[in-house]
Amino acid sequence: MAKKPLNCNPCLVSALVAWTVISVSSHLGEVNKHWGVVGAAILGILFYAMTILMCTAYWNTVLRDPGRPQENMAARDEGKDIPQCDKCKLPKPERAHHCSVCGRCTLKMDHHCPWVNNCVGFRNYKFFVLFLCYGTIAIAIALVIMMSVILLRTGPLTAWHKALIGNIVLLGLVGLCVVCLCTNHWGYVFINSTTLEDMSRTYNYDIGLKENMHSVLGDSVMCWFSPCTWGVTRYDGVHWDGPRDSPKDVESVVPAKTAL
Questions:
Q1: What residues are paired with 97 via a beta bridge?
Q2: Per-residue pLDDT tens over the stretch 98-124
Q3: What is the average pLDDT score of the chain?
């Protein structure tokens, strides 16, 4: 089995987040002059809250196993034969795909994302979607804060202001990509599809908006937007005709323990 190569993209993402936090924090005093104490406090609290939620979701996407087929899966699939992957020699259930980068099959594989150095699949797709969602909000707030500093300034542009403009341009480009991805993937959540299935024009797994969201975000609506809790127990990454009747059905084909 091929080992997943390491890359520095998560470090680059972390560096961009850190630089943005430093830039915003350094100018909150100027924001206070333009927006008032209450306005600056609201913007600051929202920015830091969204950034924390975004980072939590991001690192859960990076570190969590996306869901791998098990060797004993064929014997537990209600008597039905599951084809075997020609490359990793493990059962390859419906919606599973072999990742050439990781050298393994992934349940309900969406894609391999180099920016998280991991496959995005059944067990970490929720965190990937939340990362995009909270990232969109955090970037929007950061751009509002930084652009207000530049546009509402009373003095000439300083070297620090010029550096801030560079950050605005970079963050704006990143934000545009994140918004497009966020919109696209929420569309997949609503119709229970994936990037790979969209590319092949396969849309056979829609089980209704509510159940589609439960299968990705969790059984309880209260945990849907939590970047700390997966919460999916009625779906096993193998059967897609509806929720399983018992959590035991899930445990029989998907390992209960995930890497954090």
A1: 106
A2: 998 988 999 999 999 999 999 999 999
A3: 86
Catalytic residue positions, numbered? 113
Tell me the CA distances in angstroms from 47 to 28, 53, 133, 178, 183, one per residue in order: 11, 10, 13, 16, 21
187 neighbors 220 (Cβ within 8 angstroms): no
The per-residue pLDDT for range 143-163, each reduced to its tens digit, is 999 999 888 887 788 888 888
Conformational region of residue 57, where left means phi above 0, alpha means psi within -120 to 50, and beta covers everything else: alpha
Residue type, 218: G
Tokens 């955090």 belong to which residue?
Answer: 138
Listed residue (207, 119, 237, 177) closest to 127, CA to CA: 119
Q: Give the max Cα distance, the chain.
A: 75
| Cα–Cα distance for residue pair 92/45, rounded to 1 Å | 46
Give the type of residue at 136: T
Instruction: Measure the CA angle with vertex 195, ends 257 and 111; round to 5°.
Output: 50
Single-letter code of the amino acid located at 15: A
